[in-house]
Design brief:
- The strands form two sheets. The chain has an eight-stranded parallel beta barrel.
- It contains eight helices and 15 strands.
- By secondary structure, the chain is of the alpha/beta class.
- It starts with 6 loop residues before the first strand and ends in a 6-residue tail after the last strand.
- The chain folds into two domains: 118 residues, Nucleoside Triphosphate Pyrophosphohydrolase (Alpha-Beta Complex); 176 residues, TIM Barrel (Alpha-Beta Barrel), CATH 3.20.20.
- Bound molecules: 8-OXO-2'-deoxyguanosine-5'-triphosphate and magnesium ion.
- Belongs to the Nudix hydrolase family.
C-alpha cells in the first residue's frame, strides 16, 4: 500500500495583546470554514514566497484591518490533523495601528487572559493558550537559610523586576520548613498576581493551594500520568529529547530546558548551546524556558529561537 503524504500547511497567527496587557484578541471562524465555529488567533496560510511575519502582516490587514508595528515570535506548534500537517507560527503582537474589526464578517473579541480557557479553540491551540497566559521570565528561588531574607528577595523580584511566574526550589529545607516557606511565598505571589509552582511532590498541593507543581527531571521520568488536575500548572525540568517527549506525554504545561550556558549552581554540566536548543524547542509542543546561565539580557535571543523566555535564579535573586 502506498503511504499517504499529508499536505503541509504553514499558518501564521497573532496573539494581539491589549495596551494594558490584560486582554488578547480572538476571532471566531465562520461556520463554513475548516474548524468553523471555533475561536482562533487571527491569521492564515502563508503564500509560498512569504516569511511568517510577512504573511501575518498581510493576513491581519485582510482579516482585521490593522497594521502590525511591533511583534515577537511566541511559539511554533506542529500538529497532525487527519488530513494535513499544520505548523502554527504564532507571534505576539505588542503594537499595531488601526481599530480591529471582522472584515470578513467574523466575530472579534478582546478577552481577559484568565477567561481564554473558557472559549472553544481548535485542538492544535492548547500550547498557544499556555504560551499566551505565561510571562517570558521564570524565577527560580535560591537556597536561602533566613526566612526574612527570603521574603525580602522574593518581594524585590515581584515588585521591581515584575516577575509573574515563580518556582519555589528549596532542596535544603525539610518537609515542614518547605511547607511554611511555601505558604509565605504563596501569600506574596498572590499580592502581585504572580503564579507559584512548588518544586516537589505533587501531593504538596493538598497542603498548599499553589498554582501548580514543577517536576524535577527524575520525578518526571518516573510518572506515567499527569499527577495534578487540569486546572493546575504542571512544569518540568528537561535536558534532552527523551525528557521533552515524556513531558509532552504527561501533558506538562511548560518546561525548562537546560543547560544553555555555564552556571555556578551546576558547574560540571555538559552545555547544550543555542543550536541544539532550537531543534528541541521546535518540536516540544509547549512553552520552553531557556535555563542555565540565562539572564534577562538573553530573553530576546531565547524568543528568536522559539522559547517562551528565560528561567533564572541568579538574575532575579538579589
Ligand atoms: N488562523 C488560525 N488558524 C488556525 C488556528 N488554529 C488552527 O488549528 N488553525 C488552522 C485552521 C486552518 O486549517 C488553518 C488556518 O487557515 P485559514 O483558514 O485561517 O487560512 P486563510 O486565512 O489563509 O484562509 P483561506 O483563504 O485559505 O481560507 O489553521 C488559529 O488559532 N488561528
Ligand atoms: Mg484566516
Amino acid at each position: 500500500m502506498k503511504a499517504m503524504v499529508k499536505r503541509r500547511v504553514h499558518v501564521a497567527a497573532a496573539a494581539i495583546i491589549s495596551d494594558d496587557k490584560q486582554k488578547v484578541l480572538i476571532a471566531r471562524r465562520p461556520s463554513s470554514f475548516d474548524q468553523g465555529g471555533l475561536w482562533e488567533f487571527p491569521g492564515g496560510k502563508l503564500a509560498p514566497y512569504e516569511t511568517g511575519l510577512e504573511g501575518l502582516k498581510r493576513e491581519l490587514h485582510e482579516e482585521l484591518g490593522v497594521e502590525i508595528t511591533r511583534a515577537q515570535p511566541l511559539i511554533r506548534v506542529h500538529h497532525e490533523y487527519p488530513d494535513k500537517h499544520i505548523l502554527l507560527d504564532v507571534w505576539q503582537v505588542h503594537a499595531f495601528s488601526g481599530e480591529p474589526f471582522g472584515r470578513e464578517g467574523q466575530a472579534v473579541r478582546w478577552v481577559p487572559m484568565e477567561e481564554l480557557s473558557g472559549y472553544p479553540f481548535p485542538a492544535a491551540n492548547l500550547p498557544i493558550l499556555r504560551a499566551v497566559m505565561l510571562p517570558a521570565e521564570y524565577l527560580i528561588t535560591a537556597e536561602e537559610e533566613d526566612e526574612a531574607v527570603f521574603g525580602e528577595r522574593l518581594t524585590r523580584a515581584l515588585e521591581e523586576d515584575g516577575v509573574r511566574l515563580v518556582q519555589l526550589r528549596a532542596k535544603s529545607l525539610d518537609g515542614e520548613q518547605y511547607l511554611a516557606r511555601a505558604r509565605r511565598a504563596l501569600a506574596l505571589c498572590r499580592e502581585y498576581g504572580a503564579r507559584l509552582l512548588l518544586n516537589g511532590d505533587p501531593a504538596l498541593l493538598e497542603q498548599v493551594d499553589a498554582d501548580g507543581i514543577h517536576l524535577t527531571s527524575e520525578r518526571l521520568m518516573q510518572l506515567d500520568r499527569r499527577p495534578i488536575p487540569a486546572g493546575k500548572w504542571l512544569g518540568a525540568s528537561t535536558h534532552n529529547a527523551e525528557q521533552l517527549e515524556k513531558a509532552a506525554a504527561l501533558g506538562c504545561d511548560l518546561v525548562t530546558l537546560s543547560p544553555l550556558a555555564p552556571t555556578p549552581s551546576h558547574p560540571d554540566a555538559v552545555l547544550m548551546g543555542w543550536h541544539d536548543f532550537q531543534q528541541h524547542v521546535e518540536h516540544a509542543g509547549m512553552p520552553v524556558f531557556a535555563l542555565g546561565g540565562m539572564t534577562r539580557q538573553h530573553a530576546n535571543r531565547a524568543r528568536a529561537v522559539g522559547a517562551q523566555g528565560i528561567a533564572s535564579i541568579r538574575d532575579f535573586w538579589r
